[in-house]
Predict the structure of ABC transporter domain-containing protein.
Amino acid sequence: MNAVIIKELTKKYGNIVAVNNLNLTIEQGELFALLGVNGAGKTTTIKMLSCLIKPTSGDAFLLGESIISNPHSINEKTNISPQETAVAANLSVLENLELIAGIYGQNSKTANKNAHEIAQKFGLKNELNKKAKNLSGGMQRRLSIAMALISEPQILFLDEPTLGLDVLARRELWASIKSLKGKVTIILTTHYMDEVENLSDRVGIMANGQLTTVGTVTELTMQTNTAKLEDAFIVLSGGVL
Ligand SMILES: Nc1ncnc2c1ncn2[C@@H]1O[C@H](COP(=O)(O)OP(=O)(O)OP(=O)(O)O)[C@@H](O)[C@H]1O
């Protein structure tokens, strides 16, 4: 079954066409990685799909609901961990998690139970009483994703989830993301090719607001006659090897 159907989605900022006539279908439980050089249109796409900004034209259907006519319904079933880590600095880890659970309508008992469960899953169990501002950057990214997940979304958007993390923190976060595969539909943007190779079921490459290529890592390397995704990406983004 399809979780996401994108139809001719376009976003213009004045003369700039940030996203240009995007068409794409993503299956339920799939982890889809969106790649592209800086300014290609990835974040704008994710922001439209998560109903943070309105498209100029076109539409997208998430779990059958339109981002134009039913954004509230989509907000109940999806969540985003944005590029800027979105945690309340002066609240503890537990309070941050319970806050989001409360916003999504969970009573305090359920919110507390879910907060403890998700903290366990994301290696945050020993940090529950720490203020978010005193966590390391890696722990803050983890908390940000845990906060997106506590609402039990069916679709999760991860915008550069491991940006600025050290190798160990990145690997730990990959393991947490991998444990969601097949259960939650995930759309992820990243500049790290090893992340895509490790996590994604399919990859889409954007250039100048357009989705130029969609396929598995193997399909992309075969298509470009290259040995690894990084080389395939350079070829497909119009660069020189
Ligand atoms: N609020 C805005 N106002 C004007 N132009 C914008 C706005 N947001 C994005 N853009 C422009 O839209 C284009 C696409 O930007 P977007 O942030 O979606 O790219 P991206 O692929 O996510 O880049 P990065 O990898 O650097 O995060 C860029 O030319 C950018 O300058």
